[in-house]
Amino acid sequence: MTDGPRIDGLYSVHLDGDFSRQFVRNTMFNFIGRFWSFVILLVLTPYILARLTVAEFGVWVLLSVFVGSFALLDLGLGLSFVKFVSEYRSSGDFERVNRVLFFGLVFYLALGGLVVAGGLLLEPLLFGIFRIDAAPGAYALVLVAFAVGNVATLLLSILRGLQRMDQSNIVEMAMTVPSVAGTVLVLENGMGIAGLALNALVVAALTTVFAWWRLRRVESRVALRPVFDRALVRKLFGYGLKLQVGRFGALICFQADKLIISRFLGVALVSFYEVSARLTLFMRALPLVMISALVPAVSELEARGDRPQVLKTYFLAARYTVVVTVGLVAFVMLEARALLLLWLGPGFEQSVVLVQVLAIGYGVNAISESATQTGSGIGRPDIDMRGAILLTILNPLLSIALILELGTPAGAALGTSIALVSSASYVVWTFHSVYVGRSVFALLRDVHLRPWLAAASGVGLVFLFHAVLPVIPAADSSRLAAGIRIGVDCGLFGSTYLLALVALRHITALDWQNLRRLALFGYRVLRQPFPELSGGEGVGMTSWPQNRPGNG
Predict the structure, then answer these.
(1) Which CB contacts under 8 angstroms, 24+ apart, belong to 369-372?
(2) Model confidence at 551: pLDDT above 70
(3) Domain layout of the chain by residue ranges
(4) Is the dihedral of CA 468, 470, 472, 473 positive or negative?
(5) Greatest pairwise CA separation for the chain in angstroms
(6) Helix or strand or coil: residue 221?
(7) N or C: which end of the chain has fewer CB within 10 A?
């Protein structure tokens, strides 16, 4: 078996050496943490829906959107912390790490006070525009929870910048325990939305305390010292403001549709759109977790001036992200009805088309994130910024126009997907033009084409199987039947997809070798997740499986 398609060897990347070990370790812990969080979200969603009305759930979603909008007031600083802490950690400059921490704490405390005061003043206006009838007490609690949670987010960003994704994910996973327990407690006692808001505040406070304790435990050189560095602040804002445009585009893309639906179609229909978005976001999360350690990793490589390794890291991330994303998009579109029935039960049939349409846009967006995050890591957030500007313009215009034309939430989903595909195409094209220096058509041919052909083969075989055994399509009459159908189709589609990738020589001997190393490394990490507890120095103490004769 050959090494398959490549451009000057860039697509044939060995997972080997200290950098790969650190990158894979961080990615592994990010995967565990994000997977756990999404499982909790998927489990809690039907429970919450069963104890709130559809309108109440829609109001709770809108309150979350409001808070997410206020988060933009940090001017992109949250995104700067990870990059610059990673650079300073690479050079051992913990004095500047501490200055980042001090400034971030002061800034977020001031921002929290501003958001609480300003948010309460805007309450009548917001509730009037988006037709929200109640929950003023819950809104105030959500604002305070946001202010407290910002401090926790700062501390988690410092941990990520220190390349300790294991610790940041431990904090987030541990906090799901009081979060779930609190959710059940308040809803079983009939506290409704106000109870959920109170629970969010308690969890934010607990997360802040626990994150600080873990940060001090793993890196004693990090401390709060009241030193204000003007030059550092300018660098943080200069980098963050460019990324802020990208955050604004993400807010428009993933949240604004709910506001538009509430305004034009009513708050109850927000619930049907939200469950569709949550399912497709879960689909999008898996490939994004695979590249979640790119920004600090690439930042460190860029600080060393190692451009060849940056390019190899980018192509490695792009190649594997496409394989996973294409398979997920095809399967979710194929099984949308059965997935919704298994997850939520009957009553959400109108969300099927929303899932199928959103899966395309969210999938293409996930594929483009390799370019977005690599660009951010090398100090070129302006690439994502321009793509976000395009997304910000297209998404609301298309969503409003299509909602008015179709009269259903499907208009918002279609507008979002068209805008996402347009923005993602622009970002990848621009990144290849200004940094990679290679044609994006070669990327499409060598990285994208074969997975799409393999997915089409899998979908075609599943349709053929359903035609031969028509009882399978009818198996979505109950949750049990839907689960059986999903299991059968998953086995058929997954095996066909994988075999087609091998037959098309997109999965090569090198990929199997990387997979074997990854599995062995993962096993060793899980056996000894925190090497410092046994006298090691962290990431580097977990040995990477070495080459053996015959393995290439």
Answers:
(1) 369/287, 369/288, 369/291, 369/321, 370/291, 370/294, 370/314, 370/317, 370/318, 370/321, 371/314, 371/318, 371/427, 371/428, 371/431, 371/432, 372/246, 372/427, 372/431
(2) no
(3) 52-228
(4) positive
(5) 72
(6) coil
(7) N
Which residue's structure tokens are 């977990």?
542
Q: How many residues does the chain have?
A: 552
Instruction: Please give the pLDDT value at position 547.
Output: 40
Helix (H) or strand (E) holding 239: helix 230-251
**Token pair of 509 as six digits:** 């001997």
Angle at 546 between CA 319 and CA 316, to 5 degrees: 10
pLDDT, tens digit, for every residue of 305-329? 777 878 887 888 888 899 999 999 9
Q: How far apart are CA 35 and CA 322, in angstroms?
A: 19
**426 or 285: which leads in pLDDT:** 426
* The one-letter amino acid at 31: F
Give me 347's structure tokens: 């009553």
Instruction: Name the one residue in this structure whose structure tokens are 């460019």.
Output: 242
Least confident of 6-10, 48-52, 191-195, 447-451: 6-10
DSSP 8-state secondary structure symbol assigned to residue 545: P
Q: What is the mean pLDDT of residues 366-386?
A: 83
pLDDT over threshold 70, residue 263:
yes
Q: Which position has the higher pLDDT, 350 or 32?
A: 350
Q: Tell me if 344 sits within 8 A of 499, measured CB to CB.
A: no
Q: Side-chain half-sphere of 124: how many Cα atoms within 13 Å?
A: 1
- Amino acid symbol at 117: A
Residue with structure tokens 């594997």? 320
Choose between 390 and 77: higher pLDDT.
390
Is the separation of the CB atoms in 258 and 98 below 8 Å?
A: no
Instruction: Give me the helices (H) in 54-135, please.
Output: 54-70, 77-90, 94-129
CA distance 69 to 66: 5
267 in Cβ contact with 59 (< 8 Å): yes
Say if CB 399 and CB 416 are below 8 A apart.
yes
Query: Positive or negative CA dihedral for 117, 120, 126, 132?
Result: positive
The residue written with tokens 């990347």 in the block is 13
